[in-house]
Amino acid sequence: MRRLAELKQEVVALGTFVKLMRAAESVSADVHKEIGDAGLSISQFGILEALFHLGPMSQKEIGAKILKSAGNITMVIDNLEKRKLVVRTRGETDRRSYRVSLTEKGEGLIKAIFPLHSRRINNRMSVLTVDEQKALGVLLQKLGRHRD
Prior knowledge:
about 70% helix; 3 strands; mainly alpha; globular; 3-stranded antiparallel β-sheet; 7 helices; Arc Repressor Mutant, subunit A; about 150 residues
């Protein structure tokens, strides 16, 4: 039979997990409003934002930046390309690879919505002091890196 201390720790862990998930869902729904209003999925926005801030990248690099699988990235980029927000160009040294870059239309869209998105995040996070935000960031990195 498990000890009482282990059971108490499990109750705290489960409660903390529920609070983390509820907070994440609440914040995500709030800060992603502009994205939905612009007709973009979160993955599409992530790709546009990465290309805007980091420049052209391969699909593999994009997947690593926004934490999506290769198959998912291909589909999302296909949809962005259909909307003429990104363009793929074949690599000069490796003809099997493609670089993805923003089109003028894609750059205009991300320039229009990113500042609103950034302000919404800042406003939502301002319920915490800067020191609390830093402490939370450290704790979340620790939690995210832990593997059993």
